[in-house]
């Protein structure tokens, strides 16, 4: 008899399909956001790149300036009027007919619209001010209440000359301007990039404050200052953004650290002028930086280094919502300057490595005042007042300002020597992105940012996750401008698109949990497998909970009569909560029943006692289930499957039953496997031969 230990047990031997390999849920989760989604948005396309945008909140109109034209469009992005500002000499040029200005034949003829400003009191003075790069930078105004606005000239020939021109405002190298009111008077605060030619013929100034005349035919010069003659061609100041708040007007610029060294590093500077006392001795400058400082555990590993983003690319001045206010440790609704920065090399070229910093205005002013006090404190080394490119020598005087016992130390222009910096809110995650524009507004408690990129995209982000996984709730959509009532310019694009602050849609959210976890102001819900807004859903729209999501399951077949673990891959197998929670559990286990495996053939059905015979078991559904004690494998033939195994050694000759164990099911059959005596070699004939490789033994 054959002992029980000699019973033949079939073990699965195939290596290609294993329980730990094929039947494992993917470790990489499915992407939850589709950044390739394109939205159809109302837009207006100009003939040339957009240079300036002014937004009228009162009548829901937008005024767009591009080379040789300014157009007005309504909230549907349809043109309502157009004013031609060039080319000079063209019969279509409407501004050319408004002023008597003699220009040189060699002067440029195409007009870049450098300044586009609305009057602060549109109810009394419904004017749009336009200042161009041609005709010595003179300005015009149009009445926007008219169906066909006609430009009026802010220039009088008799009051201006090639050596002194108070009505010459804009520079062709770039100009930023703000209008601020003090009492019943409006002042134009202007910052312009200049060179020697611009300052010598119908001169324009680096910084100037102008008051429009009541006769509406020009300006009165209040104060001005210009880069020193020896530096005008070598030391360029690129003015990027301007804004006003309460008592001051602010200008942001990019310029070299040292005006006397052409290879010195670039700095971002913030200049401040008083509205009530707009004199240059009240002028202040502050160096601002955006930095990334790695956490301590990262610093110890040495994998990350700190970064100084020295070059401002764009900025927006607005308020802060509660979510970001808590992070910045400021009051909700406080005024904040949002700036997108990049690393700028010694040639002034921005690199694709961007950052976002939020600078509270109260803190900016505190830093300026602290810098004033530091300059005025008695010490062994008196701090320089800086601004050597505006005045000389670099001491506590300004344009030979007479000092006497009555003059105060603080009544002098000052560059605060200590940089004021903030930390990147994106935590250095924008290493392959160059931001070119920014707009930030508040919706409820949320602070929502739109960021234009150099490749013509916009990233929308809610700030409650800026310090972490911003992309998990962000959207990236292919448009070229934002929100008609809160527009950002994406030069050199030529399309203005209307995008609500709530975003263009919800279709970029690919999963129900991500859809329902979107900020509430986006109004996203789940509709038959698609994230959408309720008005876009023709079936049941759900904003409260998500059902389980199954992406894969295995095995596909299980043996009847046994207990098999079935693995479901996906998410949300936990109870759906509100708001939904994305489960970290990737599979659940259940029991199943199904097909009935059977053995139909054993080939060969015999073998020697010492074992090692390769045996193929053929039958139905032998490839079902998950485990067969070792590994999984199958060889199918029609509806049949095969299992290949090696026999174990037996103790005695005889027939043994065959069984296959699939999961917890034992498959029995009447067919037997016979162990026979081990083969014995009695003789070899012939027992010799020639040395050839094809000799056969009989």
From TrEMBL:
| This protein's UniProt keywords | Disulfide bond, Glycoprotein, Membrane, Repeat, Signal, Transmembrane, Transmembrane helix
Q: How does it sit in the membrane?
A: Single-pass membrane protein
Membrane-spanning segments:
none
Indicate where this protein resides in the cell: Membrane
Signal as UniProt keyword: yes
Main localization category: membrane
Q: Which residues form the signal peptide?
A: 1-21
Signal keyword on record: yes
GO MF: semaphorin receptor activity
Describe the location of the Sema domain by residue ranges.
25-520
> What biological-process GO terms show up in the record?
axon guidance; regulation of cell migration
A GO cellular component annotation in the UniProt record: semaphorin receptor complex
Q: Which SMART domains match?
A: IPT, PSI, Sema
Check the record and name the Gene3D superfamilies matching this protein. Immunoglobulins, ligand-binding face of the semaphorins, domain 2, YVTN repeat-like/Quinoprotein amine dehydrogenase
**So what family is this one in?**
Belongs to the plexin family.
Q: Provide the protein name.
A: Sema domain-containing protein
